[in-house]
Queue: 2 jobs
Job 1
Amino acid sequence: MKAEYSDEGVHISIKDSEKSIKLNGYYVDTFSVELILRVLPLKSGYSLQLNGFNATLESEVDIHIQVVESELVKRGFDEFVDAWKVKTYFGETLQYYWIDPANKELLKQSSMIGDGLVLEFRRG
């Protein structure tokens, strides 16, 4: 799949199929949020709302970003660093990201995938 964004909207190509979807305003691809979080001026109380577009689902989604707190997170094998815990809603779907403010590095990400089930990724 390939999604190309322009002022007119998004052009989606999947194998031999192509489709253009008109978007009103500025949108970010929902799969780019991990990169966006790394360049934001995160600090206690920081929040941001973005218009998101999920090209896979071909749908618009509101993205709400809020810094919750600073938390000690493991980086690598034996190093612990203070990281911003960032609560991020993609519509009704909640994910948490932990961002190292010094290195602008995503250290961990967590999401609820079912009743009491949490999927967590850690960067080593």
Job 2
Amino acid sequence: MIPTRGILATWRPADVVAVGAELDALFENNEGFGPGGKLADLRSAVPDGYGNANPNWKGQAAVAAGAAVGRVSKYACAFVDLGLGPYGQVSREAAALARAKASIDELVSVIESGDLYVTDNWTVLVRPTPMEPDMAKLMALAAQGFQTQLNGHLTTLGLAEHRLASPLVPDSLFFGQMENDLAGAPKDAVPGLLGTERARESAREAQQLELVRHMQGTVTRKETMTRDGKPVTRLTMLDGSKQVYRSDETGETTEFYDSGGKLYSTRKVQLDGETRTELMRDGKSPVVITESKGGGDAKAVVDGVTLTIPSHSDIASALAGGGVSGGVAGLNPYVRQPPFSAASFLSAGEAASVEAGMGISGPGLAVLGTAVAVGMAEDDYTKCVAGYQGGAIIAGEVALMLAGPELRPVAALGVSTATSLATGAIGTAVGKMMCQE
């Protein structure tokens, strides 16, 4: 398994190396297999249930190491009779585990010496400090490069831990001692990284998507001002994009700008509860989306043609169900959650309560989800079906052709792979909902 960063910090693989060396010596000399032998001496010298001496060291290797030492006196003869003798592998793989942990610790130290950091679930992100868009682009690219290196070390660690456990777990199960322990073992901190090729790709995509959410949804600056005598809140995101919130006697309006300062969407909630959203297009009239109070299907007008699309709440639910939500995965000490749900659009009052350092990726993702939904409806669902049945990127490309690249604030980062994966993930989530209707 691959532990979380916090759990790995408590691991002591050097101790397991020492135990393995003692076991190797005993088996090499064929000593200690009877009562009172050296193996029994070793057993008495090690705390009972060694694998649980540090409660934070968990996983198959931890369980297996504790089981091996704790029961070695009782089962040594059985291991020898079966011809298993697994202890040479314990010392070898424990040494590999120690080397992998040292490599991870060294790389994380390098990563965190600058403007990047590593979350508890091993995602490399950019520190949420104000920076120019070009620098944000550079840091996002650096994060991707370091992520690839870190994933390699994490894979080595996970495989060493698995090999350390493999000769012991089946034997322990043979004696019926560990079934309950293994059933409650913790899951990988990076699901899929030790799996099939497709599973590894999915793990990498999830990390890329987290980077996109972080860049376009982490607030680095909040400004309050007045416009026509009314209060206005402007939030600047880590990628340089901006969201402007204002309220007046006609309702509440939100404006979305990319990192270059170009307006790419507006959304107004009128006093009667009706919502009007515009998606800007270069050289064309905006896509206009209206939604009545209380939700239900929304209507999108594209070049004079009226299309029915899901409501913004349905889109938000689809994104959350597809793993494309505004939350922050894992322990992230640099990004705080706002005191309200930021899974979709915000009200002017909610925006006013946001502070620098908070994560609100929901609004930006909601705009992208709406654009994808319009693109799928406009294409009569054919690309939608392809989108969630295997060509997820297609669904995103439909929306991009329709709405223009300025609809993607993350595009300003220049991280094309991350952008495509994010849009494809949104297309997959929205496509499943729309195609099943």
